[in-house]
Amino acid sequence: MLGNRSKQGRYYGGTGDPYSRNGRGAGTSRFKLMLIIGLAMAAFQAFKYFTNTQTNPVTGETQRVQWSTEEEVALGIQSAPQMAQQYGGLHPDQRAQDYLDRVGERLVNTPTGRLSEYPYEFHLLADPNVVNAFALPGGQTFITAALFNKLEDEDQLAGIMGHEIGHVIERHGAERMAKTGFIQGIIQSVLIGSGGDATMAQIANVVGNYANMKYGRDQELESDNWGVKLMLESGYDPEAMIGVMDILEAASGGSRVPEIQSSHPSPENRREQIREAIKRYKK
């Protein structure tokens, strides 16, 4: 038995006493050590994120990205079958697929579209229920039958595919992976630096989640902008993108959450930004 026991049953002295000078010193030293390790990890994550940059060949923008363009293409091609399977596989209607290919090729064979030099592929997915369209890094783009069948004309399809091509041009997938990795690294650094404090962990995760959602909203607006530009260059009517917003809003059932809590901008915001882009590019 460690220490001496009094009549009241309390213990005094010994290394196990949490109120002893040695106990306080050990706890303080451990906290300082974990804080130093956490700060060092955060500094490393910041250095890796802010120094890993490439120049976008289309926009000329310096971007913080996770992969090279070759890696993006390889990753997209490798991931495409798995993504298609999640939406019921490819749609069996070859005429509809040919129609999608024709619209997509018309968009990428524009002065702007040709600058990216990605090997674009356009996939019509069989899912009849999930209204969605998305793009993988490197040029793999998808639209579900549920959304495809709601479109009223070719211009609206061009608006959706132009938006997805915009994600590829802007290398949003590579940017998102780099930023997500950075935020997760900072969260881990906070956890270690705080000694695993649950409150700090919760705060760090909430901040990281909101930061990523804001980044997603910015990406969506950038892609809408590219959709307008590509549509004008390829002879489509960009006003059709307003109708696409109406379709997406109706498909959501009119549900609303605060924009800060969503990965996409509100339909009203997107409509306004699209109209501004049309005026800007038509000048």
Write a structural description.
- By secondary structure, the protein is mainly alpha-helical.
- The protein has one domain (53-180, 206-282).
- Helices cover 62% and strands 8% of the residues.
- It has helices spanning 21-51, 69-86, 94-108, 111-116, 145-148, 154-169, 172-193, 198-233, 240-251, 267-282, and strands at 4-5, 11-12, 53-55, 62-64, 121-125, 133-135, 140-144.
- The strands form three sheets. The protein has a three-stranded mixed sheet, with helices on both faces. Strands 1-2 form a two-stranded antiparallel ribbon.
- Helix 3 crosses helix 6 (154-169).
- The chain is elongated, with a radius of gyration of 26 Å.
- It starts with a strand and ends with a helix.
Principal-axis shape: elongated
Number of helices: 10
**Between the first and last Cα atoms, what is the distance in angstroms?**
87 Å
Strand adjacency order, main sheet: 5-7-6
Cα-atom Rg, whole angstroms? 26 Å
Percent of residues in helices: 55-70%
Helix/sheet category: mainly alpha
Report the major sheet. 3 strands, mixed
Number of strands: 7
Protein name: Peptidase M48 domain-containing protein
GO cellular component, one term: membrane
Family: Belongs to the peptidase M48 family.
GO biological process, one term: proteolysis involved in protein catabolic process
